[in-house]
Design goal:
Keywords: Membrane, Transmembrane, Transmembrane helix. The chain is mostly helical. The chain contains three helices and no strands.
């Protein structure tokens, strides 16, 4: 499902997958395990990120509804800012870091 043993075996036999420490079937086993667990890790990370985003969206919607119905003002812990301003700052910081890492990686 997350890794293809036949494809890995073909790569090892063709010499496209090489490692000084392992060879033959042992290299296929190690490569398969690494690919499978990397796939699991990416899947779990993606699902967790998605769930966090949905939870955050629900939280924000409830906070805004509460503000509209009760007249309660959403306060920030920082003076002269609102939670929306802080959220925008956080998104900008994350975007800047991700794009910087992607640009640095692409240049290599």
């Amino acid at each position: 499902m997350l890794a293809d043993v036949e494809l890995i075996t073909e790569g090892v036999e063709a010499g496209t997958i090489q490692l000084d420490v392992f060879s033959g079937q042992r290299l296929v086993d190690v490569t398969y395990a690494m690919a499978w667990w990397s796939g699991v890790g990416l899947l779990v990370t993606g699902v967790a990120t998605w769930l966090a985003a949905v939870g955050f969206g629900v939280y924000r919607r409830r906070a805004h509804r509460r503000q509209e119905t009760s007249g309660e003002v959403l306060r920030s812990t920082r003076p002269n800012t609102t939670p929306s301003m802080e959220l925008r700052r956080a998104v900008r910081a994350i975007t800047t870091n991700v794009s910087g890492v992607a640009a640095a990686t692409a240049g290599k």
